[in-house]
Each structure stands twice: as structure tokens, then as C-alpha cells.
Design goal:
Blueprint: H1 3-12, H2 14-32, H3 46-55, H4 58-68, H5 76-85, H6 89-98, E1 116-122, E2 127-130, E3 133-137, E4 143-146, E5 152-159, E6 166-172, E7 177-183, H7 194-205, E8 227-234, E9 237-242, E10 259-263, E11 270-276, E12 283-285, E13 290-294, E14 323-330, E15 334-337, E16 340-341, E17 345-347, E18 356-362, E19 365-370, E20 377-383, E21 386-388, E22 395-401
Parallel strand pairs: 1-7, 12-22
Antiparallel strand pairs: 1-4, 2-3, 2-5, 5-6, 8-9, 8-13, 10-11, 11-15, 13-19, 14-15, 14-20, 16-17, 17-21, 18-19, 20-22
Length: 404
């Protein structure tokens, strides 16, 4: 036993030994905890424990940890630092028990679910637009379910060829389901013209013995007179309506109801074809109309043509490939066929054409389907896609009205 300890024991007894230990503890704690702190710490920090492990024996560190507690979270990183500093398993277990629990991670709430819009429309297979954007087609049962719309107010439009469009505004809330029920009303067929009514009366007055069986005129697969016909579908009722030919446009300034003017430029004359009348007589609703092309079956009996464009285009073309669907430019009292080219010939600019597909439905019969919805405006099937100087322009026109 050191001299200092023995003298303390012999002179003052056991009470002085305890006093000496208390003095040492006070000296040590003043070294670890600055004297400026009047209150004992609420717990040892991670840095303090590491420092104690480097300077004092493990039992002493355990004593202080047990006395003052732990003020840091016992994470895997903290455990590694303590082990590297020399912490024993018992000390680590004590620190783990005294350390405060780490608060649970607060996760942000999940985003609210999208609203659901259910469409029930009659008849089925109608086009559905939300905010003027096509979102799909109803099934045969007239149902379409949309689950990717944003919350808020939306404009819903349901359209189908041969029917009045149905429009409604709906307010969609997150997580809720809204249902729109619509019954489309058919568009009545246009009243027959005087010529059509007279032809119909003549047909009725003709003896049955003089008539040849022609089948159902409104059946698109029944042979018709050569031409391009629009298929109007109103419910289960079909009507085949022939497109009339627009007044012929020639290069002569005295071309009757149409004029074909030439304007000079450095690159040669430019041609401009005008059709009198700002609107076509026959109108169809917006959407993707269906047309039928009927070729002539009397080609074998026809004489050889002098100029093919001056003759029947349906007799010398066995398919609709000889036609181009053109978007006309409507003026105040006329419609213009947009053209480009030289004096030799003028062609339609590709940007002013409307692509369409066609398929052979029967002998000499082709079904035509435009590839995209037709917006309001003036259109026409142009034979040949160009204007020849020595021939007339053959245009079969129609108009598309804005859906109501």
C-alpha cells in the first residue's frame, strides 16, 4: 500500500479513505465536466463516453454511465465507435439499456387516390372526350371506366356518328366515383331535295315489270350507281347518301359558277381553284365518317376515253386510290382548293390532305375510313389530286359541323 494511503488509514481511520476517494472523483469529474456547468449533465454524449474509454478503465466508465445516463441514440455507428474505443460487452449492454429510444421515422402520408369516372352511354361504342381530349370508346354495353383523371372540374363529351353529341361538366373528388349516364339522340336524315323526291315518285310509278331488282339501297354491300357515298348510321337504321359533285372548276375565267385564275410570279404562273359557295350543301357530324366507293361495272362496254379526267372517274378507276381527301379553305362566298405547282400542273399540298384507309368490301365496292377525327370545316374528295390544264377538276364535297 502506498505511503499516502497508509498514513491516511493509520491517522484518521476509514472515514479519511472514503474522503480521499471522493476528492479523486471530484477532481476527475471536474476534468470531464467543466466547472462552468452548475447542474449535472442529463446524460453523457457519445464523444464523452469515447473520451472516458480512452483515458479511464472500463469499470470507472461503467460507473459514470450508470450515474449520469446516456444522452445519445445507440445506433450501429455509435456502437462501432464505442467498440473501437475499447468498450466491453457489459458496457455496451448497459449503454443500450440506458440510451433513449430513437423516435420512429415519420413517413409522409400517401397521395390521395385518383377519382374514378364511369360512363354509361347508349348506344354503345361511342367516343368519349374529356376536356376535348379523346380518352377512349365505350364497349358494346356502353360502359367506359376512367381512373387516371385529376381531381377538379372536367368537361365530358360523348360523340357518335349519326347522333347528337352529349356534353356535361363533372366535378371529381379524390377517391370518389362519379357516373355519367347519357342516351344519344339520333340526327334525323336530311329532307330529300325536290329532284330526289321527284325521282322517288317516278320510281314508285314505274311498273314493277319494268324494274330490275336492286336490293336494299341502304345496304352498303348492295351495288349502287358509281360514286362516293356517306354511310349515315342512326341507331340500327342506315342510310347511304351520295356525295354530289361540286360545280366544275376550270382554268377559264368564264367557267360558269367557278373560276380558275392564274397569277404570275418569277417562278411561273400559280393556279388557284375557287368553288363558289362558302359551305357544302351536305353536312356530316364531327368524328370519323365512313364512306363507300362504288366503281362502274360497265367499263367493258365503254368507248376508249379521249381525256380520262373528262370521263367518268369511277369507270376508269377500280379503287379509291385515284382520289385525295382535301381540306378546303373557306372564304366569304367561296371555297378554295389549296394548290401548289407550276403552270403545267398544280397539286394539292400534303399538309392539306386528310389520310384515309380503304378496304375491298365486295366486287367494285370499297369501304373508306378516315384515320383521325374530322373537325369542323369544308372537305372534298378530289379526283387525281391535281389540276390539269386541259381538263376539269372533279371534286365531291361535304362539310363537317361543330358538335352541338
Amino acid at each position: 500500500m502506498p505511503l499516502f494511503a497508509r498514513s491516511l488509514t493509520s491517522s484518521h481511520g476509514g472515514r479519511l479513505i472514503h474522503g480521499a476517494l471522493a476528492v479523486c472523483a471530484l477532481f476527475w469529474s471536474c476534468t470531464v465536466f467543466p466547472a462552468s456547468s452548475q447542474e449535472p449533465p442529463k446524460g453523457l454524449s457519445e464523444e464523452q463516453v469515447v473520451k472516458l474509454l480512452k483515458e479511464d478503465p472500463a469499470p470507472r466508465v461503467e460507473y459514470l454511465v450508470n450515474k449520469y445516463g446516456i444522452a445519445f441514440f445507440f445506433t450501429s455507428d455509435a456502437e462501432k465507435k464505442l467498440r473501437d474505443a475499447g468498450a466491453t460487452p457489459d458496457l455496451l449492454q448497459l449503454i443500450r439499456r440506458l440510451a433513449p429510444e430513437k423516435p420512429a421515422e415519420v413517413k409522409p402520408p400517401p397521395p390521395p387516390p385518383h377519382p374514378t369516372l364511369v360512363i354509361h352511354a347508349k348506344p354503345g361504342e361511342a367516343e368519349v372526350y374529356v376536356d376535348d381530349e379523346r380518352r377512349g370508346q365505350t364497349g358494346a354495353d356502353g360502359t367506359l371506366k376512367l381512373g387516371d383523371l385529376a381531381s377538379g372540374s372536367h368537361k365530358v363529351r360523348i360523340s357518335m356518328a349519326g347522333y347528337h353529341s352529349y356534353e356535361v361538366s363533372v366535378d371529381l373528388d379524390a377517391g370518389e366515383t362519379n357516373t355519367v349516364v347519357a342516351e344519344l339522340q339520333p340526327i334525323p336524315p336530311p329532307a330529300p331535295t325536290k329532284e330526289e323526291a321527284r325521282a322517288k315518285d317516278i320510281a314508285k310509278s314505274t311498273p314493277a315489270a319494268d324494274q330490275k331488282p336492286r336490293g336494299d339501297h341502304d345496304d352498303p354491300l348492295t351495288p349502287h350507281s358509281p360514286g362516293i357515298y356517306y354511310l349515315q348510321q342512326i341507331g340500327s337504321v342506315r342510310h347511304m347518301i351520295e356525295l354530289a359533285e361540286a360545280p366544275p372548276a376550270s382554268r377559264s375565267l368564264q367557267g360558269g359558277r367557278s373560276s380558275f385564275g392564274a397569277f404570275g410570279s418569277l417562278g411561273g404562273p400559280k393556279w388557284k381553284t375557287m368553288i363558289f359557295g362558302s359551305n357544302a350543301h351536305f353536312r356530316v357530324p364531327t368524328g370519323r365518317p365512313v364512306f363507300y366507293f362504288y366503281a362502274s361495272t360497265a367499263e367493258a362496254d365503254a368507248p376508249a376515253p379521249v381525256y380520262s379526267l373528262q370521263n367518268d372517274p369511277f369507270r376508269y378507276n377500280s379503287a379509291p386510290s385515284g382520289f385525295v381527301l382535301v381540306r378546303l379553305q373557306s372564304q366569304k362566298n367561296t371555297r378554295e382548293v389549296p394548290m401548289k405547282g407550276s403552270a403545267a400542273s398544280a397539286t394539292v399540298d400534303e399538309k392539306d390532305t386528310v389520310p384515309f384507309d380503304y378496304e375491298n368490301a365486295a366486287a367494285g365496292i370499297y369501304k373508306l375510313q378516315v384515320k383521325s377525327d374530322l373537325g369542323p370545316g369544308e372537305y372534298g374528295f378530289l379526283y387525281g389530286g391535281m389540276l390539269q390544264l386541259m381538263a376539269q377538276t372533279r371534286l365531291f364535297d361535304f362539310g363537317v359541323d361543330k358538335s352541338k
